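REVIEWER CHECKLIST
Item 1: Sequence provided? yes
Item 2: Single chain? yes
Item 3: Sequence as submitted:
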Amino acid sequence: LVTNTKSSVPKWSDVLVTPSDNAAYTPSTDVSNMKENLHGVGLRHAVDRAKLLARTGRGCANLLDDVSSLHEELSQSIFKLCPSTLASASAGTPISEFANDVNACVSSFANQIQTLGDSIRNDVARPCFDSSAALAEGAQNIYSKYAASRAACFQSRKDALKSRQKYVGSVKDANASIQSLRRAKKSRLRRRGSDLASEINATKASSLQESYPGRGEGAEVAWEDALKKYGLRHGLNRGCEAVIKALDEVQASESQYSAMVTLENGAVEEAQAMEKMALDSMQTLEEKRVINLLETFEMFLQTEKAALSAMGLTLQTKPLDLKSESASLIKQRELPIPTSNSSLFMSPRRRTHSEEGPAINDIRMLNLPDHLAEFRDKTKSMIRQQSARLESLKIVFAFNEGIANALESFAVGLYARLDIDGYVGKSE
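Item 4: Structure as written out by the authors:
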């Protein structure tokens, strides 16, 4: 979800925020209890998604780094084969110019393969790894702040419940004190008069209804003084003091409970506000992740396009016509064979100085006809050419085999690396 100028993207804090009109979604529950923790469900899913994307990004970065190493190994293997191999194979042969052209193309291919490998590592793998690490760290920091607000809210809830329990206990103690004073009144006074219990209950109800405004106010002093006078008049000082003390404890407990409830409400509002802030921060992280990913791949594609454009794979020279070359060799082999009826072993004859040479000397020694010398020289020359040709072809074959082995090693290594991460089916 990337914000752009053409379309309005909804804010995560509006669509993923926890509803606040249902008690089941209160943030006062324990954040570590997933069964009862329904607050911040959208935020948790967003954080879990960010962590998953971060792990995936780190895995992709490691994969791309290994692919970059495979590109480097391929380029180094090709560099070892050229230019010395083809140069030695084609030196002094008719394919020298063509071989140099092929060598230039292969060298260009190896250089650009190396450039692609460096681009994969520097322009894609490392930025992807850094972006994934930043995404995981940012998501964890955002959720930690939200979890801290939830922990404070949960603690405020615990304190409020503890104050409530204390308040309920103080109310029970006050009722017990009143009942004790009533029993004491019945045991000591056997006369009719004003109903002490009714007076105390009425005073208590009035005090509780007014939420015990304070000891300095006249209403509270009035009922305490009346209760003390009643105790002096009927000899129930201890019971009346206990009732007064119990009601004071009720008032203090109620004030403390109200304060704790106020703190809890404030913590709830803070947790709700923190959830919205966290969702906005997570959306910002997601937008940055998508933008960084697009920019990274755009940079890599530009580098790849430049590398492919810089590859000189077009041959400038035309390859030799092997058929015509073979035909010329056949013509060289089809030399005239002597068909003279004379004997091959002829008697020696006088020869001029221009006819002297190694072949003529050999012919003289063998006492063969002179025209066999030219046939013998041409045959030996053709054999030397064929031998040099075969030697060159042998070196060229070794070069082609080296290129094929380098490409095969690259393909096998890439397949194995992809198979490790499960991108291809396992071989049976």
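Item 5: Key structural point noted by reviewer: Confidence is low (pLDDT under 50) at residues 207-220, 322-355.
Item 6: Recommendation: ____
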